[in-house]
Amino acid sequence: MKVLAIVGSYRKGKTIDTLVDHAMEGVRSAHPDAEMEKIVLAEHAIEYCRNCGTCRRDDPAKSVATCVIQDDMQALLPKMDEADAYIFAGPIFDGTVTAIMKTFLERTSWTLGRAGRWPLKGCPEPRTDRKKQAVLISSTGIVPPLFRRFCDDATKLIKSHAKCMLNAKLVGTLYAGGVEKVGLDRYVGQARRLGMRLAG
User: Fold this and answer.
1) Distance CA 17, CA 7 (A)
2) What pLDDT score was predicted for residue 200?
3) Residue 194 lies in domain
4) How far apart are CA 195 and CA 190, in angstroms?
5) Rounded percentage of the chain residues whose pLDDT exceeds 90
6) Which of 11, 17, 67, 72 is packed most tightly, with the most Cβ within 10 A?
7) How many CB atoms sit inside 10 A of residue 149's CB?
8) How far is CA 156 from the centre of its chain?
9) What interhelical angle do 154-161 and 99-109 show, nearest 10?
């Protein structure tokens, strides 16, 4: 089992970074032989999508479509394709994912997805037929879980992207809300259990 953790946080050693590490521990406890890698997007050179359409028009039989941009995504895309499961993680900014996570998702849209036929011709579908799974860890410093539904568009975005581009079902989420007030400790066990669920 190959698990990729995609981290969209800009700070190391803080809430998201810590919770991802605990989720990965949960994966290991349930699946000791799992191959895992944590990719911190802020440590990679990832350019904006140019909307040139090269990937979208590429051979739909290819597992990874051609991208004309020569940056670190050339190495990350095959890893995304080969993975069996994903941990998406990042703080919620302005109600959604961080800019670097959004840039990453845009670059994987048509390189790992292709034009399908349902419900409209051209809607994206995964290039892979392998069934995969994903979880999401998100956090906010101020907004508590009670008010999550008012400020969390990140979950909907990740769920849709995982399904349409990666053939991955979102099997669980962790919303670490109000950490500036309540601290991080209450979410550590939840992160581990989320990792175990992903491995299971």
Assistant:
1) 7
2) 86
3) 2-199
4) 9
5) 94
6) 67
7) 9
8) 12
9) 20
